[in-house]
Amino acid sequence: MATYRQVGRMFGISARLSRFVSLAGSGYQSTGFHWLSHNTGVKSRWPHNPHWVVPGRTMFVQTQDTPNPNSLKFMPGCIVLEGGTMDFSGPREAYCSPLARQLFRIDGVKSVFLGPDFITITKSDTDIEWKVIKPDVFAAIMDFFTSGLPVVNEDSKPNADTAPSDDDDEVVAMIKELLDTRIRPTVQDDGGDVLYRGFEDGVVKLKLQGSCTSCPSSIVTLKSGIQNMLQFYIPEVESVEQVKEEEEEEAAQV
Question: Which pTM was predicted?
Answer without folding.
Answer: 0.69
